[in-house]
Amino acid sequence: MKEWFTAKELADLKLPAMPTSKICIIEKGKRESWKCRAREGRGGGKEYHISNLPEIARIQLAVLTAPAAKKEIVKEEINPQGLAEYAHIEGRAKSRIDAKLEILEAFKEFQTSLGFANTRARYIFAEKYNAGEVAVADWVKNTIVGLSACTLRNWAEVLANKGISGLAGKYGSRKGTGIIDTNEAVKNYILGAIYETPHVSCKNIMRGLRARFKETRDSLPSYRTLQDWVKTWKEDNEQLLTAVKNPDEWRSKYKAAAGSASESITRLNQEWQFDGTPSDLLLADGKRCNIVGIIDVYSRRLSLSVCDRASAYAVGCATRKAILKWGVPETVRTDNGKDYVADYIKRVFAALNIEQIICPPFNPQKKPHIERVFRTFSHSLLEQLDGFIGHNVTERKDIEARRSFSQRLFNKDETIELRLTTQELQEFCDNWCKIVYEREEHGSLGMTPDEKAASYVGTIRRIADERCLDVLLAKPAGKDGIRVVSKKGISYEGSYYNAPELGGHEGEQVRLLLDEQDYGELYAFDLDGKFLCKVISAENKGVSLEEVAAARSAVQKRALKAKKDALRRIAKETNLKGNEMVREVFMQAAEEAGKLVRLPSETTAYETEQMAEALKAAISKEPPKPTELSAAEQATAERLKQNSRPAEIVRLKPTPQQNFKRWEELKARFDAGDALDENESFFVETYPTTAEYKAQVFAAKCPKVLAGAI
């Protein structure tokens, strides 16, 4: 069975819960640290192991890639006596044997490709077979219409104990010949009901059987027979039932384990495992807090940090606390929750040069140490504290019922709980880790975690300046902390933050980090991570705005002066003073023009009649003489010149009422047959089409309405 696939092959298979493009699969592999190897052959690249894939994808991959069954291979594993008996079997019995052999071989290939335990693989294979997704011949499907995990197990036992001939079936002489076992449909219905609802009662199963098989109700088992069969099946399949009811309990109780999850850990702080969980306590404010746990796998030392809610910043605070106590880790292992894959956390780990390993979803076994220690913590002295609400819904209901009874039986004053505050719970967690957990002998260590850490003689990486760690773990100001430096400074939360060092960075983007100890200060970095300065809010710090602005202006001038000097030197070297550039451009253009050679061409004169007349006027040397006036004409011109004075005429715009009255008068004259001039006739015809005319007509008809409106 092929176990290694390229990203393109996985994309082409279009598996469930998997990306369908090569690029997305490669990114998913990087994000989840998939197991991979270099691909051999032309082109190179990487191949990914099928163990990286989600369970549903591995199942579908096994169905798609499992080769056709070959009953000859199975026959070679059967004892000769069984083969001899098989040679004498004919008819339907032989067909049943062949079909079962085909199915068993297909199951072997399916289980090999998945790597699951027998019981689990049988159940999944049976489900896929009944859904028609197993690649077997049609005659096999027609012979064996349906099967179950128990059926597969029984066939394998018969094949191993009685040989190939035992698969023909012998009714009436062996266990499993009852009315339920001999009716595959009824048995599968019962098993399906148990799988869907493990706590289903036999009474409801019986009701369901009577509803599903109402036409053959006489062939159904009795209620007592159903109870006995279900009881026997649950006793024989305790592990399978546990896996169906509670996968976590099955993993803890039955899952096969080999080796140690910490066998490769040889150094203190080589690997830390992170996890978070809601506490099983109600605090004084009536709320449940969240606890972030960090365990050093080498020494099993534990750090618990209490926070109001799960967040990336809470994980950062827990990391700071552990680093100050233990030093800087080489590797951290987390799940893929949003608190651990946020940009803030990735930036923190990258800044501290810590490798982060992100576990695939729904795989707590990838970080078993922190998972186990949380269970130890939650089932220890925590249960004795006031406000404990139980580890599950059942326990919580029992506690609430007991408290309710106590309140009814006694006075309420006698049942008041002294719940802890957040600070008191943190103190409890610190004391439990230091006094109880780290001083008790750990089974896998053979000593206490405190002694294991003290026995280490290697090097421990520590941070000398705690303030440096505070800056690295600071939260971004806003969503991503990116702001633009303006001429007034950097705007954040309605205030401007400024510093002299910002001079010369106007218009650039910077990243701001909060100073938790002082709201009036922020850390400014460029986008490459280089520290620029600490910016100050004059309003929040009480620093003089003029002093900051003056200092920043001075720095800005110095920065600009340095840049200008550099530009001046460049301009001097290139000799572009004055009109040198214009002169060079003109010279180049003239040079280019001089390279052009113009060939002579024929020409002809173009002239029109008007052009000829204009030319005559232009070349006429004597201008035309003015006409002389007579004595009488000259006397009249002198008299008009003396008496002519410009008349000052003031024209007033007539009012609408005057226009309307004029129109009435002209209309009356027109109706009487009087002759009107051109202007008067035009006015009589066009005025009735204007809005002014309509308004005057309306005013004449409805004077009371207008008076009321006024």
Q: What is the number of domains? A: 5
| Quaternary state of the chains | single chain
Proportion in β-strands: 5-15%
Share of residues in helices: 40-55%
* Distance between the ends: 99 Å
Number of helices: 30
Radius of gyration of CA atoms, rounded to a whole number = 49 Å
Q: Any idea what the shape is?
A: extended
Structural class: alpha+beta
How confident overall, as mean pLDDT?
75
> Major sheet, described briefly?
6 strands, antiparallel
Spatial arrangement of strands, main beta sheet? 9-12-13-14-11-10
Number of strands: 14
Low-confidence stretches: 68-78, 412-416, 596-607, 615-624, 705-710
What labels describe this entry?
14 strands; Arc Repressor Mutant, subunit A; Nucleotidyltransferase, domain 5; 710 residues
Structural notes for this entry:
The protein is built from 30 helices and 14 strands. The chain is an alpha+beta fold. It has five domains: 1-54, Arc Repressor Mutant, subunit A; 55-252, no CATH class; 271-385 and 420-454, Ribonuclease H-like superfamily/Ribonuclease H (Nucleotidyltransferase, domain 5); 476-561, SH3 type barrels, CATH 2.30.30; 656-709, no CATH class. The strands form three sheets. Strands 9-12-13-14-11-10 form a six-stranded antiparallel β-sheet. A five-stranded mixed β-sheet has the order 6-5-4-7-8, with helices on both faces. The chain has a three-stranded antiparallel β-sheet with strand order 1-3-2.
